[in-house]
Amino acid sequence: MKIEDLTIREKLRLICGKDYWHTEDFGGKLPSVTMSDGPVGVRRTVPKGDGNEETVPAVAYPSVQMLANTWNKELAYQLGESLASDCAEHNVDLLLAPGVNIKRSPVCGRNFEYFSEDPYLAGILAKEYIAGLQENGTGACLKHFVANNLEFDRLHQSSDVDERTLREIYYKPFEIACGAKPVSVMCSYNRVNGVYASENKTGFDALRNDIGFEGAVISDWLAVRDRTSAAKAGLDLEMPFDQENYEKLVADFEAGKITEKEIDACAERVLRLGSRLTEMRRGRTVKLSERERIGIAKKIASEGMILLKNDGILPLTGKENLAVFGHFAKPADWGMLCGGGSSRVLPLDCAFDLPKELQKRTSGSVNYASAFDSDCVNSFKQNIRDAILCASSADVNIICAGTGAKFEYEEDDRKTLRLSAVQERFIVDAASQNVRTVVVLFAGGVIDVSPWADQVAAILYAGFPGMGSDGILADILTGKMNPCGKTSETFALLDEYPASNQNTTCGVTRYGEGLDVGYRYFETYRKPILYPFGYGLSYSEFLYRNLQVKTDGKSVEVSFEIENRSERDGKEISQVYVHECAPLVYRPFMELKGFSKDEVKANKIKTVKMKLDMSVFAHWSIANKQWKITDGVYEILIGASGSDIRLRTRVQIKNKAIVLF
Ligand code: BGC
After folding, report:
1. Rounded distance from Cα 660 to ligand 1 centre (Å)
2. Residue 496 in contact with residue 529, Cβ under 8 Å?
3. For a pocket test of ligand 1, which of 37, 111, 142 has the largest count of ligand atoms closer than 8 A to its C-beta?
4. Is 242 a catalytic residue?
5. Which of 35, 266, 608, 658 could cross-link with 236 by S-S, CB 3.0 to 4.6 Å?
6. From CA 199, how far away is CA 654, in angstroms rounded?
């Protein structure tokens, strides 16, 4: 079907969607596209007999934040591949995912759905996710374009961001992810520098001309205020169908406010979306069984959990008498293990029983007490005094605490990074009775551990861990698995984040911190943090050494060795940061430009190689309105985290070529 085969009426209708989840097909004349929410499971709703909708159960994977904590590109690809099987099973052509919005503020209610505070990490993992999805027959919809970094007043707030910051921080993950050629991008709800994202011509032009996006731009659900202005700006498809907007568009066309050429530009891209997805559908099969898909969910959980603190109490020996506390260990409601909103999946199976899984792995006793109310907010349970007594006599206490969908959800932000008062109080009281206390955190974002971290022996961040993860958690606690996740955002006190101190009132959020987002700020200004970006402990100890650097003038190859000085096999995430010495324009102290996750066997050495191309040295030049690489000296920093630089070397850029010293 070509654009010429459609009447103007049909074209006007085509760019407005058909209903809540489908594009218009004119009774079978065109292929209809079926959409559904992601990003970590298919949230497919179908009509019930009574006129209402119901959600169909599906595989529930760990949150995107967990995927990011794995720093594992293959796993990101595998998640996409696995979701393609879910989509094939549920007849979904286009998955509304992934979201690459930057974690500018740790309180953003949707941070669990996003990857990182760093555009490179977010972009690279999203690119793999999209490739996995699209190479297996399902289209991706990369979202939310752009500068949607808080949920507060999300339908109206203007994110006021300067051009360089947009390019280097907020467009960047879209640019990298577009390397996988997503069939669509979704605009956000907010305004960008005063203009609604659905009418943001400057942004859409950059997306198509500079970022390399070739697909269709879709609106977020009900994000279109004026269909005509949105179409003129380059928004191709409004979703869902809105009768009033459609009628206004027709009237505007008839009044000459929008030309047929402008309508054609959008309609052609919607047609192309339909044909690309029809093409993809041909190769689509349910390639992975449910069991295999849950296996992928478990793999992500096993690599996404982060050991934040360990005084040596972990791994458990398998002989201790354990006392397990908190509803999170045995949730009656899956909402404790995931965030809320459009991404919430109805799992095929909600089984999660940590005490039971621990009992399978220990010869000691395992006692469980819920200790505090299931909403973790209001009160202790009646048995709290017994629980404290139990805590004092166990060999090891395992306290399961966290947030869940009641605290982390779409449409609002968290008010605090701290756990609820009852949870904090229980941790402090139990640890005062028995220092051999381990806290396991179930959350989708940063938790301020400062009120109690010093008093406990270990902290394991279990995230929103997905189906089948109770056994994985028990494996990590008992040492059958070696933890290997690292933080994908900086953990600090709320007031320390620059975004916390910017104006968010009167309908405008000022991005006054500019480029200084996340570790770019904390490392540049050496500000206090709880846990740095890229940080996570292992049961193994890794030594870095022997850094070598090579160049062909256009790129740099670094290679170094990682030695596993322990009796356990482990995985280490090494990170490459670039620091420009004496720059001519402001630059954050360091920027992530590469990473590698490698398995290093017990007592063995592994050589890691990473290649950086010339573009890693670039900044967006406001003066030249383009990317620019300045001649000068650049340090290459190899870190076990952003704050733990193990090796460093320098290169020079001279007359646009890289040279070694
Ligand atoms: C969310 C999108 C989602 C859409 C459809 C919106 O509220 O912002 O991320 O894809 O709803 O459910």
Report:
1. 49
2. yes
3. 37
4. no
5. 266
6. 42
Q: Which of 19, 92, 95, 220 to mutate to test the pocket of ligand 1 (most atoms within 8 A of CB)?
A: 220
**Residue 317 structure tokens:** 């020996």
Q: Which atom of ligand 1 is nearest to the CA of 188?
A: 8
d(CA 264, CA 269): 8
Phi-psi domain of 139 (left: phi exceeds 0; alpha: psi -120 through 50; beta: other):
beta
Is residue 96 lining ligand 1, measured as CB closer than 6 Å?
yes
What tokens appear for 502 in the block?
Answer: 């910017």
Which residue stretches of the chain have pLDDT < 50? 378
Q: Pick the residue whose CA is nearest to atom 8 on ligand 1.
A: 220
Question: Does 558 sit behind a cis peptide bond, omega within 30 degrees of 0 on the bond before it?
Answer: no
Give the residue from 346, 378, 357, 376 showing the smallest Cα distance to 368. 357
Mutate to test the pocket of ligand 1, among 55, 92, 96, 238 (most ligand atoms within 8 A of CB): 96
Can you give the pTM of this predicted structure? 0.98
Which one-letter amino acid corresponds to residue 211? I
> What pLDDT was estimated at residue 505?
73
Q: How many residues does the structure list for the chain?
A: 661
Among candidate residues 220, 236, 448, 470, the one labeled active-site is 220
Tell me phi and psi for residue 30, to 5 degrees: -120, 155
Quick: pLDDT tens for 437-451: 999 999 999 999 999
Q: Which of 211, 237, 213, 212 is nearest to 224 (CA)?
A: 237
Gap between the Cα atoms of 322 and 393, Å rounded = 9
Q: Which residue reads 């995107």 in tokens?
A: 64
CB 464, CB 339: distance < 8 Å: yes
Determine if ligand 1 sits within 6 Å of the CB of residue 113.
Answer: no
pLDDT tens, residue by residue, 317-373: 999 999 999 999 999 899 999 999 999 999 999 999 999 999 999 999 999 988 876
Edge-to-edge strands of the sheet including 591-600?
A: 591-600, 570-580, 632-641, 644-654, 657-660
Pocket of ligand 1 contains residue 220 by CB under 6 Å? yes
